[in-house]
């Protein structure tokens, strides 16, 4: 019997803040359909992302991936394609 591990969450977003050391804030947008009016609108959520060395700048489009908890609110890190 083989067990499969779940894939980690991967999101694409925009860097909106760099006020902390080794941490950036990334805004992730998603489209949601209104249940009654059937119109699509944008919902946003901000995540704290671990960025060792502060390698990105505000306005950069980045991909983030879920990881082990790094601090109380930081559970994502920058995705680096290998």
Overall description:
It comes from Candidatus Kaiserbacteria bacterium RIFCSPHIGHO2_02_FULL_56_30. The chain is mainly β and 82 residues long. The chain has a single domain, classed as OB fold (Dihydrolipoamide Acetyltransferase, E2P), CATH 2.40.50.140. The protein is 0% helix and 54% strand. It has no helices and five strands. It has strands at residues 10-20, 23-33, 40-50, 61-66, 74-78. A five-stranded mixed β-barrel has the order 1-2-3-5-4. A hairpin with a 6-residue loop joins strand 2 and strand 3 (40-50). It is globular, with a radius of gyration of 15 Å. The mean pLDDT is 93.
Write down the overall geometry.
Answer: globular
Task: Give the CATH superfamily.
Answer: Nucleic acid-binding proteins
Separation, N- and C-terminal Cα atoms: 30 Å
Which CATH architecture is right?
Answer: Beta Barrel
Helix fraction by DSSP (H/I, runs of at least 4): under 10%
Helices, by number, come to: 0
Structural class: mainly beta
The CATH C-level class name: Mainly Beta
Radius of gyration: 15 Å
Task: Please name the defining characteristics of this protein.
five-stranded mixed barrel; 82 residues; mainly beta; 0% helix; OB fold (Dihydrolipoamide Acetyltransferase, E2P)
Topology, element by element:
Elements lengths: L9 E11 L2 E11 L6 E11 L10 E6 L7 E5 L4
Parallel strand pairs: 3-5
Antiparallel strand pairs: 1-2, 1-4, 2-3, 4-5
Keywords: Ribonucleoprotein, Ribosomal protein, RNA-binding, rRNA-binding
GO molecular function: rRNA binding; structural constituent of ribosome
Subunit structure: Part of the 30S ribosomal subunit.
């Amino acid at each position: 019997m083989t067990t499969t591990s779940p894939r980690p969450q991967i999101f694409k977003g925009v860097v909106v803040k760099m006020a902390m050391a080794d941490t950036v804030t990334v805004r992730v947008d998603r489209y949601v359909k209104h249940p009654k009016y059937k119109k699509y609108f944008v919902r946003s959520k901000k995540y704290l992302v671990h960025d060792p060395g502060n390698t990105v700048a505000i306005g950069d489009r980045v991909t983030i991936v879920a990881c082990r908890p790094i601090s109380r609110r930081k559970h994502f890190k920058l995705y680096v394609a290998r």
